[in-house]
């Protein structure tokens, strides 16, 4: 069974309730598959129900994002289309009862994993993308408000900000031609260092028996998967939209990091101070 836990709440009631219902539909299909041998009927009902409900949910979500002028709306639409395509193109393997059951289970696992990742890496950012004002000295700088009070975490967060800062500078380097290879190199460095940092952070949380470690791990996995999906090979087809795409991308990455630090990582420092735990 797939649990919809509090770390999947994004704070928008309509969207949260619809996310909860999507998980409920997947779990109901799992229960039915255990009680009935007629996998084809379960599959047909699941696909039909998910197709209709997901379309309604995506429409609500996109309308809300459009209303608040959320800059990540184009990326959200693309991810919604991928989910819809998976549902629409699914064909149950009817070569044998065992194959049919495995085919359905694979679909259910994919749908749940997609929802988990999408909520944690994208939906949690709805309405939270920070805006960069012209008079802000350096919106990509690691400053006091981002400190957790844990030296290991703060040092590694500072390095993540530096990589994002360097990437942003490169994106805005108007006189630099053929800069996309260098941008891709920095994004690879960001992914690698992010994975390194998450391992360190999770090891620390395990050592101090941090109660929210499971939620942290899920968020980390979702963000890394989002980084892995970044592909600049499509930039040549974007023509005049290349710069806009890259700016939106770097704003998302920095926005997610800031939101995660303020909403999750600072609690690690608070927990350690409350329980008198010191770094080794």
Protein topology:
Elements lengths: L12 H23 L3 H29 L5 H17 L7 H25 L29 H21 L8 H28 L5 H16 L13 H33 L6
Family: Belongs to the hemerythrin family.
Keywords: Iron, Metal-binding
InterPro entries: Hemerythrin, Hemerythrin-like, Hemerythrin-like_sf, Hemerythrin_metal-bd
- Assign the CATH superfamily of the largest domain: Hemerythrin-like
pLDDT under 50 segments (min length 5)?
131-135
CATH architectural grouping of the largest domain: Up-down Bundle
Main β sheet profile: none
Principal-axes geometry comes out as globular
Strand content: under 5%
CATH T-level fold name of the largest domain: Four Helix Bundle (Hemerythrin (Met), subunit A)
H-E string: HHHHHHHH
Number of domains: 2
Rg over alpha carbons: 21 Å
The number of helical elements comes to 8
Number of strands: 0
| CATH level 1 class label of the largest domain | Mainly Alpha
Q: Ends: how far apart?
A: 38 Å
Classify the secondary structure makeup into a structural class: mainly alpha
Helix amount: 55-70%
Mean pLDDT: 87
Descriptive notes:
With 280 residues, the protein is mostly helical. The chain has two domains: 6-125, Four Helix Bundle (Hemerythrin (Met), subunit A) (Up-down Bundle), CATH 1.20.120.50; 144-274, Hemerythrin-like (Four Helix Bundle (Hemerythrin (Met), subunit A)), CATH 1.20.120. It contains eight helices and no strands. Helix 1 runs antiparallel to helix 4 (97-121). Keywords: Iron, Metal-binding. Residues 11-126, 148-268 form the Hemerythrin-like domain.
